[in-house]
Amino acid sequence: MANRLQYEDSPYLQQHKDNPVDWWPWCDEAFEKARKENKAIFISIGYSSCHWCHVMEETVFENEECAKILNKHFISIKVDREERPDIDKHYQEVYQLLNRRPGGWPTSIFCTPQNKPFFAGTYIPPKSEPGRIEGMGFIELTQLIAKKIDEADPKLYQNADEVQDFISNIEHPKKATVLKEEFYLTFVRQAKENYDTRHGGFSLAPKFPHASTLYALQTIDKLYNNKSVKAMITHTLNEMRLGGMYDLVDGGFCRYSVDEKWLVPHFEKMLYDNALLAQNYLEAYLTYDNVSYLTTTKEIVEFWFSQMSQENLFYSASDADSEGAEGTYFTYSYEEVFSALEQNGYKDATIMCKAMSVTHHGNFEGKNIIRFEGDIPEWFGDVKIILQNIRAKREYPFIDKKVQTSWSAMMIDTLFQLCFVDASYESKAIASLEALLSKMYVDDVLYHTSLIEKEPKVEAFLEDYAFLAKAILSAFKVTQDELYLITAQKLINKALEKFYDKGRWNFSIGEFQTKAETTDNTYTSSVSIMVDNLFTLAMLLEDEKYTHFGFKTLECNSYDLARRPIYYPYMLTQTLRYLKPDRIIKTTLEKIKANRNKLGKISYPFTLLKASDEDGFMICGEKSCFANTHNINELDGLLQNTL
After folding, report:
1. Which residue among 39, 170, 171, 598 sits deepest, i.e. has the most Cβ atoms within 10 Å of its Cβ?
2. Is 528 within 8 Å of 505 (Cβ atoms)?
3. How far apart are CA 266 and CA 261, in angstroms?
4. What is the torsional sign of CA 522, 525, 604, 220?
5. Segment (H or E) for 189
6. Is the peptide bond before 206 cis (omega within 30 degrees of 0)?
């Protein structure tokens, strides 16, 4: 018999509706029941495409013994972290406080009947395992907690009170540090310290792509022409696109690699990763003129259009698992690849299999993940179709068809940037933006998430305002449609009203008032994106108050930024932008459209466009103009001379 989650919209909660656990969604009734019945609260947070969330469901939440303990002694609450990032953010902070290290998903939180947390874990197996960091298995742990709650153990309640007091304590701002251009030197040094000189990237296993770090390095290379920075960028981008974490067959990046070689991923694909990495590759193409980077950008975008969208709206994620196991859809046996190549007339199938890292023993649990060790050969374009046909006979992984404003806006932003290379993407970008606004911006209220066929319910958080405003400002840069500029200003003003407080930003208000992260973690900090928006709006509207809000934000974070800029890559780029002048190129709309490719390749990273009736291309700063030319080929050099 299905539990209460059957009535929820979230695909993640729907996945748990048939568990024997008597799940509650997040609601006042659940917490009231815990208080009345003096039961501990168990809060489980995850998302639909999370591999270890599936493992915990299978081993714990479908385990009758585990369910029996939970149903008798606990009120169990399921939360979709993508639907309620405010709740997730709160409990990630609880996890870090209790464990002195970052958490992850699934997140397992145990609270008193008064909803004060005292224990936090991630994946907890049903039974204790020797050497496991987080100690007891789920059965032993829940039995112990139930006993201590029943006995009103004073130590447990004291610990819970201390945790509650600590997380409720307001952090006092640190002393501001003068913003300096030299912060970038510290950033480069710290990036080099983390850099994997063999395989690229900025960590060992597990290896995440760090799109914001790459973006900051790309900005630094444009400003300072640093050879070592360029080497880190190009080496990392080259290594990532050779396969493994990057799906060479269908396109799109998986979330991270479990090894240092980018070979074996958890196979889920997230919209935010792909949008931000597509921007990295596009920026690298525009800077270094390497066509392979543009190819990767377009493969990512086309994958999302072909398999991860509906009615011009983008789905949030696809799963790692299918047919009951991880990676089943994505991997190949040697025999099926070799046979398919021979059947299609390839006489050197053995050599081709070796080039694709396809062997008899396999590189992932006896099967093979496609990856090249060097340049991708031309013949792979045709072979890719053969490999797609093999996959077509398999069950496709679960797709979370939830639409998220912030993540969708990231991809729409990428599409508008792509217009400077390929004008055919303009209609797609506009259609996607208009569909998102129509769906999620209703009666002047912005929402965070919704299924395509449902009405949105959860109102927007700071990240939704930030990334959507950025996408709309990109739409203005491409189209010069003043309505986009007005809409962006409206959203930014609303965000300032709701979330801004003397240089600091809240991520959410209301039930959970949580501080916005300023570090770039899972993806770029919404605070840093908002600073970007403020500076852009200030320049386009010639309104210094937006510059003031941006500066105060940087100032409030300057102490940590000066010392550990590697944690604040996007904020570092905005600091450099504040210290260096923006430039606006003014010309007619017709000339903007006719010269997009060359305008997109302007080397100075803080350059905006604004349509006017100027005769030629006028280069302007904040309060004055410097140069004018009729020759687009002279523009970049003239702009550099104004700095």
Report:
1. 39
2. no
3. 14
4. negative
5. helix 183-194
6. yes
